[in-house]
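Exercise: predict the fold of this chain.
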Amino acid sequence: MDKKLGRPRSEKTKSDILNASYELLIENGFAGITVEKIAERANVSKATIYKWWTNKAAVVMDGFLNATNVELPIPNTGSTVEDMFIQVDNFVKFLTTRKGNVITEIIAEGQYDPKLADIYRNAYFTPRRNISKQILERGISRGELRTDLNVEVIIDLIWGPVFYRLLITGEVIDSAFVKELINYAFQGIQIRL
């Protein structure tokens, strides 16, 4: 019976820790967070945090994912071009917020922290890549796209310019850019009627 009473408390404690790590991430950036600060904000011990997460990167990424996954829904309008536009445009709009700016900080920190890089690749970017794959595969099955496509390369073709501007050139990434990008990409992969 004690276990049943303890379980909701554990979930609440985990939720408090995730919320604390995310709030600190938004306030201070990744480099400004410590496990001590998360524990203090969540009103728990460091040992409690380490019971569920192996390091700072793991808890911060979980906090980030917990807070942001809801903001990026999977589109299914019946049009592959429109679905890809919505997916990329939603992400680009998210990137322009303080919450989204954290992505560049996490990517930068991942260059020096291989464990963090693995976490954000596997927990954040791979699921988004899989959404793109689902969208493109739906387009192939509906007869909108060529059947001989290398879906992985098409995903790189679409997302590469977004991250190139985000991380290298700093040029504007907005809905107009996304629309042009998607239109150019789909000119080469759509079935011509």
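Check your answer against the key: Residues 2-55 form a domain with the Arc Repressor Mutant, subunit A fold (CATH 1.10.10.60).
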